[in-house]
Amino acid sequence: MGIEGVTDWREAMVSALAWWDEVGVDTLVDEAPRDWTARETSLPAKGEAPAPVAPSEPEAIPLPATLEAFVDWRFGGDAPEAAWGEPIVHAMGDPASPLMILTDMPEAGDCDLGTLLTGDAGRLFDRMLAAIGQTRASVYIAALCIARPVTAQVPRELEQRLGELALHHVALAAPKRLLLLGQTVSRSLLGSNAGAGRGRLQPINYQGGQSEVVATFHPRFLLNKPAVKADAWKDLQLLIGGQNQ
């Protein structure tokens, strides 16, 4: 006596495959359900790595638009140098002065005294100011890098950003003349023109105006290379000549 209802699964499978073949289905796509109405995306070729997805860049936060607000931000906890944990040395002098001076970074003793350009370099700087009839109180002095790096050198990877911040600082102070002390400051502010900046009065443009720039040697360099003091004096004379233009 046979058993009714028993189906040969092999026969059923062959029959199902034959039917799919007849209707044109000859490729197994996926075991998981697929939304055939979804828009197709291009797939990488076989053996080709998928293209990386670029992360969305955060929108740049605009810098403060007034000198007072910028100084509060620049010398606060959001400054690039604040993460170093080193003392920050503020700008000094008269922000309304027609002459602004930029040094590269605080000297070794500046952090203890809370002022820029101290020690032997500072004393030579004071004599340079006196030679052109100025004092620290009559000019505006700021540093490209507001904290002293542990390497005693401004990090090259930060020069461009620090230059952008310094230029914004200059734009808000709007001095008639700008004196750059040292190659690092000149390179950050003048870029490719840094090498040609010495020995001539040149303009630097920023949003809202223009200042005349003189690039010279840093007092620290002059202490080690006294022979170039004559060239530095020529730069200062050029700066004095710019006052009367």
UniProtKB/TrEMBL annotation:
<protein>
    <submittedName>
        <fullName>Uracil-DNA glycosylase</fullName>
    </submittedName>
</protein>
<keyword id="KW-0227">DNA damage</keyword>
<dbReference type="InterPro" id="IPR036895">
    <property type="entry name" value="Uracil-DNA_glycosylase-like_sf"/>
</dbReference>
<keyword id="KW-0378">Hydrolase</keyword>
<keyword id="KW-0408">Iron</keyword>
<feature type="domain" description="Uracil-DNA glycosylase-like">
    <location>
        <begin position="90"/>
        <end position="237"/>
    </location>
</feature>
<keyword id="KW-0411">Iron-sulfur</keyword>
<dbReference type="GO" id="GO:0046872">
    <property type="term" value="F:metal ion binding"/>
</dbReference>
<keyword id="KW-0234">DNA repair</keyword>
<dbReference type="InterPro" id="IPR005122">
    <property type="entry name" value="Uracil-DNA_glycosylase-like"/>
</dbReference>
<keyword id="KW-0479">Metal-binding</keyword>
<dbReference type="Pfam" id="PF03167">
    <property type="entry name" value="UDG"/>
</dbReference>
<dbReference type="GO" id="GO:0051539">
    <property type="term" value="F:4 iron, 4 sulfur cluster binding"/>
</dbReference>
<dbReference type="InterPro" id="IPR051536">
    <property type="entry name" value="UDG_Type-4/5"/>
</dbReference>
<dbReference type="GO" id="GO:0097506">
    <property type="term" value="F:deaminated base DNA N-glycosylase activity"/>
</dbReference>
<dbReference type="GO" id="GO:0006281">
    <property type="term" value="P:DNA repair"/>
</dbReference>
<keyword id="KW-0004">4Fe-4S</keyword>
